[in-house]
Predict the 3D structure of the following.
Amino acid sequence: MQRIIRVLSVMLILMSCVSLAACANNEESESSDDTGKELGDKAVTLASDTYVSNIGATYVVKQLLEEVGYNVTVKETDVGIEFSGLASGSSDASVGLWLPGTHASYWEEYKDKLDKMSMVTEEVELALTVPSYMEDINSIEDLANNKNNIGKKLDWDITGISPGAGMMELTKGKVMPAYGLDKNWKLQSSSGPAMAAELKSAIDKKEPIVVTLWTPHWTFNEFDLKMLEDPKNKYGKPDNVYGVSRKGFKEDSPLAYKIIDQFNWTKKQNQDVMYSIQSGMSNEDAAKEFLENNPDFKEKMLEGVETK
């Protein structure tokens, strides 16, 4: 009889263990399913223009998304294609929407097909900019008045960036006519890197130069520069940078949307990443180094998110 009782006891213990294991497996399965649902579509395409101020932010976000389990592709294009791609759904999100000024025309054109997200960086500025050693040139009006024959010294050229950039449209369409610069001065199109190279070349020779520039930008880490006063306020108040996504991205990849929506950093943090890239580090490595050196920032950006 005692033997039968012992056998029954062993059988009960074994059955309890099997039941507990099954419960644990079910809970784990449910947890995995929940995580999968939260991730949604794991393939995410981030759009960026070719300006290093937005590239740095994009690659930091890429690292954060990959930390969670997403497969991220970065698509670098002209700013116009960036926004048309988001509107058409060929890209998922960007962290480079500058409002209310710089990208106003793109936002007005595509806003019905886009979701504006939270602010990424506060008060980014646009301005015509010169080296600080140009002591007599402090305002756009100094250019308009040809102070110290500055126009002739520069062959009446302002060194710009790509023609589709919001800053170029604003400079050519509003700033130059308001100050009468459109009568003599010419806004020369190039690219962000070409503009920076021209600036460096002039500074190395201590020659005068006027460029279209903005903050954040790595050149402010490298050179002593000053943004010219804009007494007519044609560049407007400083923009804020926002995240933006295609319609439906929040539902398709909820966790990716959450991470991008809570991503924000300072101009200095952006400039530090930009400067690393400019100094020869790859976009990926610069973003990775920044996150490794700023663990509190990384923890804050992934708040409420379980990493893989």
Observations:
- The chain has two domains: 39-124+238-301, 126-227.
- Residues 2-39 form the longest helix (38 residues).
- The radius of gyration is 27 Å.
